[in-house]
Amino acid sequence: MNIVLLSGGSGARLWPISNEARSKQFLRLLKDENDNPMSMIQRVYKQIRETGYSDNIIISTCASQTESITMQLDDKVDLVVEPERRNTFPAIALTCAYLHYEKRVDKSQVVVILPVDPWAGIHYFHKLKDIEQALLNSKHNICLMGVHPTYPSEKYGYMIPNTNDLHLPIKRIQCFKEKPNQDQATKLILQGALWNCGVFAFRLGYIIEISNNYISASCYEDVLSQYNNLPKNSFDYEVIENESSICAVEYTGEWKDLGTWNTFTEQMSDFCTGNVVMDDTNVNTHAINELNLPLIVMGAKDMIIAATYNGILVSDKHQSSYMKPLVESVQGRPMYEECMWGDYRVLDYVEHVDGTKCLTKRLYVQKGKSISCHLHHHHSDVWTIISGLGEFTLDGQCKKVSVGDVLQIQANAKHTIRAINDLEIIEVQIGHLLTEDDVVYFD
Amino acid sequence: MNIVLLSGGSGARLWPISNEARSKQFLRLLKDENDNPMSMIQRVYKQIRETGYSDNIIISTCASQTESITMQLDDKVDLVVEPERRNTFPAIALTCAYLHYEKRVDKSQVVVILPVDPWAGIHYFHKLKDIEQALLNSKHNICLMGVHPTYPSEKYGYMIPNTNDLHLPIKRIQCFKEKPNQDQATKLILQGALWNCGVFAFRLGYIIEISNNYISASCYEDVLSQYNNLPKNSFDYEVIENESSICAVEYTGEWKDLGTWNTFTEQMSDFCTGNVVMDDTNVNTHAINELNLPLIVMGAKDMIIAATYNGILVSDKHQSSYMKPLVESVQGRPMYEECMWGDYRVLDYVEHVDGTKCLTKRLYVQKGKSISCHLHHHHSDVWTIISGLGEFTLDGQCKKVSVGDVLQIQANAKHTIRAINDLEIIEVQIGHLLTEDDVVYFD
């Protein structure tokens, strides 16, 4: 069996802790058995490995997430990186091409696609074996995992099995219903419908053939280079809606989609994280504060309060699932980012009437790591070292730097810094164009 | 008539927009008739002047507020500054000494004490004349303004008139009741009780005599130098509780104490201030955002959300009146302050394991103004000029500075800067002791 974890997501639904650069699966807000913080992707990857599958485990992702994945999963993870964002069908097609052409997996073998962020017990992962068997033992083209509904949710998609198959372990699926209202959901559950939890399996050759309707490929590079010919469409619309031979295997254990604040907060081990003071008049309210400011919460009921360098959310938990358009209206540059060398946070941004802009950041460079040698065409930097020791190189001249040193870097000057021990720097950028892509890297 | 405005307050009840350095009366969250922002003190001062009183108007205040008062009231305001904070009785006694010894006001003249932050119509200020007349025409020692209650509030003090005086314009007061419960308040209102709104009048000689029980003074300086002999007590406890000859004049127009979020938000002209996005599921919710981050509010009911450099408050409006102990638990250094030369805000603060601390601020120096010449013993500064032009002097050496210039100021180096036009500076302080009082000023 080949397991593919889909790691995507624009991060709007768990704003402001998630954003383009830090999707929800990377937030270390869950806990492992030793009470250490862990992220969704760390939890799911660990659970898959605990099932003992020794097969291929591939993570299908986009370029902006590769750093976070490599940092969080210390194994040598097998990544397939989309050359551009084009939705789930192209991403899955590319990963299948990788399995077939690079990993030499036979077209008859089964591929199981999993989201990277389900909250489930270990039994969920053991169930993947049943899905593989269901496909191998049947003539169906697709097998889905159906979760036994625990309440008439309006948020999920439902799959309706053939009436004759209700008591069979492998059920043929006759149709789907996306996000019904509560009445419809209640009726669907009485008819034996199951929640669609985004797990689907197929034989490798099945997707290779569908891809070949759009591109002509005889190796992995062919698929990569023709990636923009693949339809920008979800796997559900492109494949499942056009397929009549679909079956499902039922999973009855613990399962949750941690994609919204409502469900996510249920898994948080504490009501508050960070500098938060709550009085005893709050009810079912969670507060996350990543800012360097105190947060006081009083008399709040069923609310989520999250304050980060990206922004502040104060919302009724249920209402927060509708926040995507609001978040899109305020989305600016990332204010916090984890990088290969450490992280940065934006402290301040000012624009002046003459067009000069000024951005102030605090940078953290991990001991032994370097910020790659680079230059900016359109702004100068002032770095003040506020802790640690480093080796700073400016236009080829190298020197040791320590607390209190001030480094002035003009536009077009090549510069790099290596942390001899953990370094912290206040960076002041000044210029007329301060964008993250005004960077030219050198080896 | 002599009018004394009491400007005090520690600022806990409107946290986080108010703090020690910025009391609520200075917040420009109200609007004048032209829709320009104005503060409570500006509104009240303007209203008093509109009544046409040509008499003495004195503001009794403490040292930390003198800058804000001078900046906000562009007249040559008459200030009496307490040498230390000792509650309202000493503050009023000092102001009376100032009126008598410095302004040569006769002991028979009437002094009216007003809080600096009532929300009232102009009729409230005209009523002061009636209070003066009531005292001059009667033998009472104190005359209070009583506000006609509009509901059985549990937050106010009530004054209960003699039964025989209920329909007289000047009522003798038989007793007081502080913050009754709702049932008691309802009964008190039926008995003709009035709210105590903190306005009281007396003949100047009356307070001079009470002061003389504690100090021996023949000039204003005598009172100043013996200020710490005056009892640290409120005017209510020291004077009113011990006085049997008290009358009141009733005011029936608009009046509110803007001291809590609940009442304050009722006077705000908009539901949001700053970078705030609210959807249409919020009910009676106000949001103030002074941070450089977006704030999204959804599904909140009867809440106040305020985000400033001091901290973030998310509270049910009613519940927020109980926040004082919570605020005291998080109170740190001021994060934003208006100064004679401009203002500053704290962007970041880091403490390292070796005891080194780093504070990053953005300073704004108004055109023509200077930061006084000073030095710090325990920390160095790095200033990066991010906008404007200035004249910088370091240990007697003067130079012009402009955008992009970096100024390194070692501990014990005397420095000053003058803004040729509006200047903005990013300041990075590094040292083992970073307190606001590590400053030595020079002329």
Give the oligomer, counting copies of the same chain as homo and different chains as hetero: homodimer
Largest interface, counted with CB-CB under 8 A? A-B, 62 and 62 residues
The computed structural class of chain A is: alpha+beta
Low-confidence runs of at least 5 consecutive residues of chain A: none
What does this structure look like?
Two copies of one chain form a homodimer. The first copy, chain A, is of the alpha+beta class and 443 residues long. Chain A is 20% helix and 38% strand. Chain A has ten helices and 28 strands. Chain A has helices at 40-50, 66-72, 88-102, 122-137, 182-190, 204-211, 220-225, 235-238, 261-266, 324-330, and strands at 2-6, 30-31, 37-38, 57-62, 78-82, 110-115, 118-120, 142-147, 157-161, 170-178, 194-203, 246-251, 255-257, 272-274, 276-278, 286-289, 295-298, 303-308, 311-316, 336-339, 342-351, 357-365, 370-375, 379-394, 397-402, 406-409, 415-431, 440-441. In chain A, the strands form six sheets. In chain A, strands 20, 21, 22, 23, 24, 25, 26, 27 and 28 form a nine-stranded antiparallel beta sheet that branches. The longest helix of chain A has 16 residues, at 122-137. The radius of gyration of chain A is 25 Å and the shape is globular. In chain A, 42% of the residues are buried. The mean pLDDT of chain A is 91. Chains A and B meet through strand 17, strand 18, strand 19, helix 10 and strand 21 of A and strand 17, strand 18, strand 19, helix 10 and strand 21 of B. Strand 19 (311-316) of chain A pairs parallel with strand 17 of chain B.
